[in-house]
Fold this protein.
Amino acid sequence: MPQKQLVLVTGPSGAGRGTAINALEDLGYEAIDNLPLSLVSRLLDGPPLTRPLALGLDVRNRDFSASALLEVLEEAITQHGFEAELLYLDCSQDVLMRRYSETRRRHPLAPNDDPAVGILREHDLLAAVRTRADILLNTTEFTPHDLRAELARLFGGEEGARLSVMVQSFSYKRGLPRGADMVLDTRFLRNPHWEASLRSQNGTSLAVQDYVAADARFDSFFTRVSGLVEELLPAYKEEGKTHFAIAFGCTGGRHRSVTLTERLAKALAETGWQVSIRHRELERGEMLSGAPLKDQKT
């Protein structure tokens, strides 16, 4: 494991950041929770690290903001030479409410108000951070043991159970996704956006998938890509890599890229790989509409 490895851990209050920091410490990380953002640069400039570093960052810090956190991430990579990742722990609003009710704690963004108010404020504050996350874990149905096991799989090196594969879709209009190991452009395939009956749907629907797959170039492209990925994954696993991210992009991030993401994730799962799916633009649409956010696992 590289010595100059950094994991920034954040997410809404109550999603499990404290548990995650403790788990990473048990995995051999030098772990620090609630470090003010203004002190991170000084820490990274300090004496050489002998272990990978994990920092827990949340809204309780007086200098916290989404833009400041993302600046810290960029500086760690570009100025300090770290292999840095942003781990975002997410959780549904109703489960966060239940956790606050059970512990009777006050929300840091609404200390004198209903926790629901603070949860919504924090959701808005962290929206940009969630979108930029390299690793997104939804802890809604996790027990602390489940979260520890998932982090051991992702960050445990040889002790981790398996190579985790993330397949995701995105729109080129909003830029490349952070942390992608392989990026593939699907804009050469015919676009369901121009089919009136399919425009309002997305690539999770069979009708859209069938339309995209009917392109004469689809089968050859998919066969070559899936073959390449299936050849590479065992090699990366042998090298000790614990997660691998593949991203498909198209113009709007709703049809072609989603179709390829769904198809490849299914193919990899059928051959025994542990695969998770993320549709960046669909998630963003749900977030803006107020609909519940859901992670998918295959």
The longest helix spans residues 218-238. Strands lie at 5-10, 30-33, 53-56, 83-90, 135-138, 164-171, 182-185, 243-250, 274-279, 296-297. Residues 164-297 form one domain. The chain has two domains: 5-159, 164-297.
